[in-house]
């Protein structure tokens, strides 16, 4: 296996960056990884996604969510090199510092590959799906290539974790319309920016976000890692999505217990 020292090298955050995240519940950070590291893992992850994504439906036969991206979960269990990327102490410490906790566990990883011609990712908040007791959750969104606006980079409604409307909506045409209408009457900045190579974002479980369509002829490849406070406890599920997540990502954990299953190792 090729050695990538940058995966575990410290990335220093400033107080201003931590304060920005605490206020807005998202942040974009440049030069987290270099082009060599990303190019290597682009190849490794792409190969595994292609291997696991058997008999995909044509785009025209999918619903809005299906058109948004091909998604595959917990690739760290499928490949030792991908595991080294997902378990990066560099990323995990950033997550821990932004959350202002003593350490973080893995909730799960997720490859999000938006195909050429792939549709929008509707407005949503991730934590709708998570049976987690607190909001001490954060997702690293890692483009594996430079991502211009035409590819559909992640967009954020800065500070929108403050509102409750829309938290009860799964990702759908309904969530796109309802959350968009709710955000129109707020002062939250809608952040739409490209991502440079090596630039990644972190966003909280309750901040609203979306992505545009991929209007290019190139696959938009993104890897995500979802972290939670290492002391996170399981709460009683409040919808079918949370029940499914309990069974899938927190196996054997009982309500009220710390989520310390074999699928949820401490990463920092």
UniProtKB/TrEMBL annotation:
Organism, as annotated: marine sediment metagenome
PANTHER family, sorted: ECTOINE DIOXYGENASE, PHYTANOYL-COA DIOXYGENASE DOMAIN CONTAINING 1
Protein name: Phytanoyl-CoA dioxygenase
Pfam families assigned: PhyH
Classification via Gene3D superfamilies: q2cbj1_9rhob like domain (2.60.120.620)
One of the record's GO molecular function terms: oxidoreductase activity
């Amino acid at each position: 296996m090729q050695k990538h020292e940058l995966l575990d090298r410290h990335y220093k955050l400033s107080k201003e960056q931590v304060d920005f995240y605490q206020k807005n519940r998202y942040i974009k950070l440049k030069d987290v990884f270099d082009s060599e590291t990303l190019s290597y893992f682009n190849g490794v992850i792409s190969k595994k996604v292609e291997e696991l994504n058997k008999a995909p439906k044509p785009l025209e036969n999918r619903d809005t969510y299906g058109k948004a991206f091909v998604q595959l979960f917990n690739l760290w269990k499928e490949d030792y090199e991908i595991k080294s990327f997902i378990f990066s102490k560099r990323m995990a410490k950033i997550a821990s510092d932004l959350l202002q906790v003593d350490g973080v566990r893995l909730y799960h990883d997720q490859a999000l590959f938006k195909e050429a011609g792939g549709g929008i990712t509707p407005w949503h908040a991730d934590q709708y799906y998570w049976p987690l007791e607190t909001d001490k959750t954060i997702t690293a969104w890692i483009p594996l290539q430079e991502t211009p606006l035409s590819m559909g980079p992640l967009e954020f409604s800065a500070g929108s974790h403050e509102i409750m409307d829309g938290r009860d909506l799964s990702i759908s045409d309904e969530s796109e319309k309802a959350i968009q209408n709710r955000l129109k009457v707020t002062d939250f900045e809608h952040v739409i920016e490209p991502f440079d190579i090596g630039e990644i974002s972190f966003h909280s479980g309750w901040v609203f976000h979306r992505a545009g369509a991929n209007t290019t002829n190139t696959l938009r490849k993104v890897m995500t890692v979802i972290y939670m406070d290492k002391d996170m406890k399981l709460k009683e599920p409040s919808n079918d999505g949370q029940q499914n997540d309990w069974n899938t990502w927190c196996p054997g954990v009982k309500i009220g217990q710390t989520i310390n299953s074999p699928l949820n190792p401490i990463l920092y």
